[in-house]
Amino acid sequence: MTTLLDGVDAVLFDLDGVVYAGPAAIPHAVESIAAIAQPVLYLTNNASRTDAQVAAHLSELGIATTPEQVVTSPQAAMPLIAKHAKPGDPILVVGGDGITVELEARGYRVVRTAAEHPVAVIQGFAPHVGWKDLAEATYALHTGIPWVATNMDWTIPQAGGIAPGNGTLVSAVHTAVGRMPEVAGKPEVPIFTAAMERVGAATAIMVGDRLDTDIRGANRAGIPSVLVLTGIDQARTVLTAIAEDRPTHVIADLRELHTDYPETRETFERSTGATYAEAGRAAVRRLGAELTLVRAGEGADTLRAALHLVASSEFGPAAMRIDPALLA
Ligand SMILES: [Mg+2]
Fold first, then answer.
1. CA 44–ligand 1 middle distance (angstroms)
2. What are the pLDDT digits (tens) for 214-233?
3. What's the domain range around 235?
4. 33 C-alpha to center of ligand 1: Å?
5. What NCBIfam families is this protein classified in (predicted)?
6. CB neighbours of 91 closer than 8 A, spacing ≥ 6?
7. CA distance 26 to 257
């Protein structure tokens, strides 16, 4: 039997849509994570919570977690700040505790106005961020100092629904200053580097539910990516994704980290010119740009077989005609 954890020396997890959804744990997440022998780390773009707050939330859900296992986007931003500032320097903060705790731990001085002559600006989400904060960042950035954003998520889920995220607030400043920040969080590489360095890992895998952050980021960082279908992205977006956003592996839920993950078998049928991919019981056929379900399988097997044929096709995802049965 081969599993996705074989030969891996650290397992990196996204949180929302993978470990929990809102306040509750995702089914099978708690026991599947507890059964992992390797170091486990959680990568979060949310800059409003500290590592200790995230660890406490996970521990409440039944996954005993230390703050050292949580890698936040403000933590990943610290090496970017360190390129431009030394301890004692004033840093203008747009954001909350998630950022100020990290800056103060490294000896930087937190300031909130341009009049305090900051040497850099760091911007992350906090619910109290308002126009005055964005205006102070803009005044400071007009002097030409470096600008670091924790992450560029356009939206952030809140109790009342979907709200503007840090990327949307960064965009307001970007429009006013005419340049873009350096970004630390997913899908950029610094947060993956921070996680790997923390445990000295060389062969990690990343498990996430979003193609445009978790999977794209892992691909950019050169780490195998595992899409779990308990969150945002599903068959339709997986099969039509650009190559940069294509996951290395797909699983239905976290139990499949521990079960046999057989290779997808590809065969070519000379008489018809069709190519077949089989994963478990599932079989999918590709003829030219046409992708057709032959036999449905269990769990994520059908999607694995279809994804294999999309990835090995000479046609781009936009040119392929995909059987609606594969997109459901
Ligand atoms: Mg997520």
1. 9
2. 999 999 999 999 999 999 99
3. 10-45+187-257
4. 16
5. HAD-SF-IIA (TIGR01460)
6. 81, 85, 103, 108, 109, 110, 111, 118, 119, 120, 121, 122
7. 15
